[in-house]
Automatic annotation (TrEMBL), chains A, B:
Protein name: TetR/AcrR family transcriptional regulator
Residues covered by the HTH tetR-type domain: 12-72
Species this protein is from: Streptomyces yaizuensis
Pfam families the UniProt entry points to: TetR_C_33, TetR_N
Keywords: DNA-binding, Transcription, Transcription regulation
Ranges of the DNA-binding region feature: 35-54
PANTHER family: HTH-TYPE TRANSCRIPTIONAL REGULATOR BETI, HTH-TYPE TRANSCRIPTIONAL REGULATOR RUTR
Amino acid sequence: MSVQERKERERADRERLIVATARELAEQQGWDAVTTRRLAERIEYSQPVLYSHFRGKREIVGAVALLGAAEMATTLRTASSAADGPRARVTALARSYLGFAERNPAVYDAMFRLDGGLVFAAEDTPEPLKDAFAAMLESLGEAAGNSVHPALFTEVFWAALHGLATLTRAGRLPPGDAEKRVELLVSRLAMM
Amino acid sequence: MSVQERKERERADRERLIVATARELAEQQGWDAVTTRRLAERIEYSQPVLYSHFRGKREIVGAVALLGAAEMATTLRTASSAADGPRARVTALARSYLGFAERNPAVYDAMFRLDGGLVFAAEDTPEPLKDAFAAMLESLGEAAGNSVHPALFTEVFWAALHGLATLTRAGRLPPGDAEKRVELLVSRLAMM
DNA sequence: TCCTGGATTCTAGCGCCGCTAGAGAACAGG
DNA sequence: CCTGTTCTCTAGCGGCGCTAGAATCCAGGA
């Protein structure tokens, strides 16, 4: 049944197109501008086609989040693998995390600020999300110190980075001292 | 002109009613449920009345945020003033901050997650926001350590608390170890 | 080559949203 | 009791997420 295979392939292509277009539109004009009508127009299909791929807008956000998580994981691993020593790895991870958030604000929002209907911190958490956390843990675990569980340390470090990323971008923190804040965070939290 | 005074008083009362009702509705059913129609119905006026007090929904969110900031400032000051010594004050501040965020999620969102059209970290930042930051600085400044500016330290500590608050509530962090995370954060960040 | 039946896609529309123009009611001051 | 202003409401605009049912397409068989 080569016909059916082709149809499935085309369907998968179109699904990727939807997700990529949603991401693109969100990065260009923010998630508020990602409406089902505009999205449908951009992919040159009618609105109901979206609903044959996803249950609703929320699931599209979730799909962008999964894509972003995979991308973030490789970004973090690339950055920390280029650093020498535990301390440098922690700094590299922090910088590349914040850099990713700054360069891809819409994807970051899809992952951590919006509701994409994804399950976090549980057994049935999707693989890309688990892997992004694992990527952080790989670099941070060795800086947890003796009496602290690496996962707990990673959670706290991650939360601090997340706070810096969101507050900075929302204009809640003065934009100038970003690098100083990273240095302070790393020097105090990391034990080595 | 007693008549005019009465009218101004009644207008101010109604404005407070709008803000309180918006807050109440948001805490009960989330900000998505706070629509201008529902809000108008609850205060027993028609929709356009809202627009004679506020430019739009965003400004109503901003008003709730200001109210919440003042409340948070007194909450934080009360908690830290009951603690003995710098270290205990930092712990008390962290716990009361997270407690406030947990007890008043909608107000917290209005302050730090939603766009209420408020200016942060600038000269024309509204007084309640400045004061809430000042309340944090009062307890945290003495734990900054020698070579770190108290304001910078407060920013980083605040960002970490904000990350913990938002990630926990969004289900991004396992709910069980919240207290352990606070302890780790305080013990590593605070210098004394 | 032409049917045909199922899969696919579209048009049209539902109830809701934030917001506003203009009609109408209310009321203070003469 | 008028009257002019000030306030409030009704009604409606365009856009939202989402969906029922009509229209179209097309693979597979006659």
